[in-house]
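Journal club prep, notes for RB
We'll compare a predicted complex against what the paper describes. Inputs for the coenzyme A case:
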Amino acid sequence: MDSIKLNLNKELFEKINLRLADFSDRDILLEWRNNIKVREKSFNSQIISKEEHGKWFNDVLTREDVILLIGALGKKRVGQIRFNINEKIAKISVNVEPDSMGKGFGPILILKGSGFLFENTDCEDIIAEINPDNIASIKAFSKSGFTEIASDDNKISMRETKNDFLSLIAKL
Ligand SMILES: CC(C)(COP(=O)(O)OP(=O)(O)OC[C@H]1O[C@@H](n2cnc3c(N)ncnc32)[C@H](O)[C@@H]1OP(=O)(O)O)[C@@H](O)C(=O)NCCC(=O)NCCS
């Protein structure tokens, strides 16, 4: 843990708020999902249709094993975090609004989202599965307290336990 660089922008950290997604977020999430910068880093790089997205989104909003959070800076949505929960383990997915990538939002969303998850569920671990050429994502998860647990040519798996999270957040 001590080796983690805690060079987060603290002012930005305080200013970004997370809330549960609602129906008003449906269309912007499709725009982000279909953006080329997001698709080229995804395991599934196909364009998603409005119909397919609409069904997926309605399902996500009603499921108890999925938490979808929106990060906002003032009124501007800057990214989304999703957790798919199965037996106290949450798989995390994150994306920053395309024009806001590379400005330090990712680690803040991951940390705040992890805090929301651990406060509101009985989850004990968060797992991230990352495309090995997605350096920004690997760095963003490392900065947020995740460590590598497995890797192959197609995927790097990183994990953060609740204890990892609590000791990291205590240093902020
Ligand atoms: C991955 C993602 C969440 C990271 O969030 P972000 O706000 O862009 O990340 P940051 O600005 O904090 O950058 C994180 C680190 O990656 C570096 N970085 C950013 N873009 C980079 C790039 N294209 N290539 C290499 N490094 C990059 C930053 O310099 C920073 O490094 P540092 O910690 O040494 O300063 C965001 O870029 C994103 O949504 N990408 C598209 C979707 C995606 O890949 N999601 C993750 C799937 S697992």
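Talking point for the session: The first strand starts at residue 16 and ends at 20.
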